[in-house]
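Async update (no meeting this week)

Hi team, since we skipped the sync, here's where things stand on the single-chain job. The sequence we agreed to prioritize is pasted below, unchanged from the tracker. I ran it this morning and attached the output directly underneath so nobody has to dig for it. Comments welcome in thread, and please keep replies under the output.
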Amino acid sequence: QASPQKLRPTRLVEMERKLMLLSRKEKLSVVCLAQIQEVAKSCGLPTSDQEVLKVLKFFHQKGTLLYFDQVPTLCNVVILCPQWLAKLLTYVLTNLICQPAGPPLAQYAEERNKKGLLRQELLDCCVKQFL
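Output:
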């Protein structure tokens, strides 16, 4: 079974360029799998789940994007800008400004600051502030 880069190198370069444009010009950091399939189709690449998965794994290994097909909650999500995720995680884990008012979020912020525990509710609040 041939790797994606050996099958259609010019089309892969075109797809990579279009994904970078989505990230930079349209300021999209995260897209769904269906959007990736649309981009693949516009580049003349196969759009079956198996073929798109190969392409995403190739781009993930190359460092162009992040795709975690083995994580059920993330298998429909493609992160176009790995640096965006690094900045977001840095913000969430180190930014003490994310101090939501009122219980229970204030208590969760205290847990994060003192015990290193990060609850989903607090993560959601911090992500909204970051975006």
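Quick observations from my side:
The first helix runs from residue 4 to 7.
The chain has a mean pLDDT of 84.
Reply here if anything looks off.
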